Amino acid sequence: MGENLIANIESSRDPEPSDPPVAAPTISASFSVKPRYRTAGAALPGKSSADPTRLNGYVAQSRTSNSEMEAELSSVKNAWSSFTGSCSWVRIESTTFLTGFQELLDENRQDAEWIDGVAAAFEAAGGGKLSNRVLDLTQSPEKPLPEAELLNALEELKENEIVAFFAANPSAKHRLQDIDPATVHSWWQRMNPAKGSDSRFSAQQQLLLDAFPEVMGNLEGVAYGARDYANRRALTAELKNVRAEIEELRAGGSNTEKLETQLRALENVEKSLRNPQNSESRFLISLTQDQPPLAAVSIGDLDTASKVSYAAPGMGTDTTGMMGWTNAAQNLHRLLPRGSAVVAWIGYETPPVPEVMNLDLGVLDSDRAVAGGNRLAATLRGLTATRGESMPQLDIVAHSYGTTTAAVSLTLPGAKVDNFITLGSAGLPDNITRADHLQATHVYSGHARDRMAIDPESGDEWAWVGRDFSANHHVNPMLPDFGGQPFGVDTGGDAGDPVVGHDPLIVGGGGYFDERTESLANIARIIGGDTDLLTNYVPLGPTNLQEGMRESVKVR
User: Fold this and answer.
1) Nearest residue to 243 via CA among 225, 224, 262
2) Rg, Å, the chain Cα set
3) Where is the region Disordered (predicted)?
4) In what order do the strands lie in the sheet with 393-399?
């Protein structure tokens, strides 16, 4: 027993280092994964078949197993961290086992994603067989199909194969929108009918327009006549679907308010396509699936027009009022030279008019202007790409908050216009302090006298509110320091009817786009190149209410 006690005492002492020193052990733990090549055998002609139900079962099991392995990897990482923290004296060489483990999980995940896409392709095709090429075009989100391969696939595949392709690659439709419009235009032109053909579209173009109108109708770079054809088909189909859905919900006693708003917008777009007597044809050049949809109606042919003007609207404008904005564009078009086109563009979500029951003050910040400006810039780049060497004169006529939006677009790459015309501006973004900050050759501005909404006299009752009370768009393009050219809108007399309020169209006349107004005549002179005929901006004096308020302040 005494010997044991002595042994315990000796073991409790700090032992003397060994001589010679004992080398610390070396640890090496390596593991790597060979990348997997996922293919159905596209190098070989032929087709493959599969049961999508079984494929989906495999995907579910694979993802479950991978989740379990991820938990194991977490445990291994914790154990390794604990070991290296407590045994820092151990020499460590190659330790690729953790990254290798993660690579294994990544490969497993990509397997599941690929098979998931393959299953979706077979489901969309209704089972049966699919060409090996279609299956090999299925990609994981981490490795999207290159642009050239995406366009080549749409150029060559059959309808059922493209349906299967989009089902397997749900992001492909959105990725098309990100492709440079010039690339899209070259691709579309490549598919044109052979010279001497009487056909409007080639067989492949017809297939794409008929089967995927909601994609082709909004794809910048595709010819505008083709987009009009596709969007009209999409509009007809959507009207039918929404009406049927409303009937079904009504039969079940469900609320149909949102769908009725959607229907009202779609019907408004449909009505806006009707040509007034003796006017140029109208084209539906964009129609989205938003609620309500965004849309653009061109009065005149954008594929051939010598002058193109985009009319950008302000607050409270959406496609439930498409007829009104198209009427405003039509009023301008009537005054322009033959061969011109004016686009009633409701291509962004405008801020609503603030109301007691809907106190949305989005009109006082630039968030929607930034989003809308990006969309408008993309639209302008699309026209540039589509028209190429036959590029027309390009102008923007913007009203109210639309001036804020359009100004944003004219600071973005590839968005340049000949004339930027602002009407009743709610203020340009604070970073745009001079006209030369915009990619516009000329900047013109028209603005009626500021007045309060309760003032019975004429004037613009809302634009000044947007500028003065906004968070970040205070810039008034009418001011001399800005460097633009103001023009008259409320001179009166022989100059034309004065603008009496903020709206583009006013019952009884006097809106910025109303017929016989000084405002509309000056816009047409700018676009038509008759700027020497512009009426000068002469500020209209204060209203009686404004005078009374000033006198009241003096008395105090």
Assistant:
1) 262
2) 33
3) 1-27
4) 282-287, 295-299, 340-346, 307-312, 393-399, 417-423, 440-446, 485-487
What tokens does 538 get?
Answer: 């002469």
What pLDDT score was predicted for residue 418?
98
Output the CA torsion 527→528→530→535 (10° steps).
-50
Kindly write down the DSSP assignment for every residue of 241-275, as one continuous string.
HHHHHHHHHHHTT---HHHHHHHHHHHHHHHHTSP
Place of tokens 């008395």: 555
pLDDT at 5: 43
Which is nearest to 122 in space by CA: 76, 67, 53, 182?
A: 53
Contact of 433 with 476, CB cutoff 8 Å = no
480 contacts: CB under 8 Å, gap ≥ 6? none
Distance CA 267, CA 262 (A): 9
498's tokens: 């004065």
Three-class DSSP category at 309: strand
- The reported pLDDT for the residue numbered 29 is 81
Q: What is the pLDDT of residues 259-269, one digit of tens each?
A: 999 999 999 99
Question: How would you class 173 by CB atoms within 10 Å of its CB: exposed for 0-12, middle for 13-18, buried for 19 or more?
Answer: middle
What is residue 350's DSSP assignment?
Answer: P
| Strand, helix or coil for residue 110 | helix
pLDDT score recorded for residue 227: 98
DSSP structural state of residue 447: -
Count of residues for the chain?
A: 556
Q: Round to whole Å and give the CA distance between 88 and 490.
A: 84
Q: Which residues of the chain fall short of a pLDDT of 50?
A: 1-2, 5-6, 9, 12-13
